Amino acid sequence: MTVGTRSGTAAGVAVRRLTVLYDAQCSLCAFLRDWLVRQPQLVPLELVPAGSDEARRRHPGLDHAATLDEITVVGDAGQVYRGGAAWIVTLWALREHRGLAHRLSTPTGAMLAKGAVLAAAKWRGAQGNAAQWRGARQGGAQWNAAQWGGRAYRRGDGWSYDPGRGWTYDAPGCEGGSCATG
């Protein structure tokens, strides 16, 4: 199987076992870990928390900080897969999803896999920001505007969110709550 990003000198070597490094603090990652262990596997998957002592012991040459930011899968011969390629090789290891993995390993499929990884990363980032906001509110502190680039979040459809006031709506084209009538 040839997919995306691989490093090392193990190209062309059969994959007999894969180690999936996942963020144990991420609810989405934990859900996917649980889903993976329930799937029939053609290639055994070992799921190890990213950045853990176990991950560092098994793979001392990896950038373990990066494994917390992006899904990383390591083959038994030293192959390293990241991002979309990691998802594809993980699906390839599953009996019921190998066909999907082959379709995703095409150039068009790889773009779809990359999009799924980016969507998951965006969701994870939003969850992290929500947790920070909950922590700030519980401690009586104010939201730190630098965490998301500004005090209020404004959408193009007229809705905006301000941590102190909540959601508000100003119809597009209305200044200060008054709209021109025609």
Please tell me about this protein's structure:
The chain has 182 residues and is α+β, with helices and mostly antiparallel strands. The chain contains 6 helices and 7 strands; from the N terminus they run βαβααββαααβββ. The chain has helices spanning 27-38, 53-58, 64-69, 84-92, 98-104, 107-138; strands spanning 18-22, 45-49, 72-75, 80-82, 153-154, 159-162, 166-169. The strands form 2 sheets. It has a 4-stranded mixed beta sheet. Strands 5-6-7 form a 3-stranded antiparallel beta sheet, with no helix packed on it. Helix 1 (27-38) links the parallel strand 1 (18-22) and strand 2 (45-49). Helix 4 packs antiparallel against helix 5 (98-104) and helix 4 packs across helix 6. Mean pLDDT is 75; it is low at 1-9 and 129-151.
Keywords:
182 residues, alpha+beta, four-stranded mixed β-sheet, three-stranded antiparallel β-sheet, 6 helices, disordered N terminus
Main β-sheet description: 4 strands, mixed
What is the element string, with H for helices and E for strands?
Answer: EHEHHEEHHHEEE
Can you give the mean pLDDT?
A: 75
Provide the structure class.
alpha+beta
Q: Give, in spatial order, the strands making up the sheet with the most strands.
A: 2-1-3-4
What proportion strand? 5-15%
Poorly predicted regions are 1-9, 129-151
Shape: elongated
Number of strands: 7
Helix content: 25-40%
Overall radius of gyration: 22 Å
Gap between N and C termini: 63 Å
Figure out the total of helices. Answer: 6
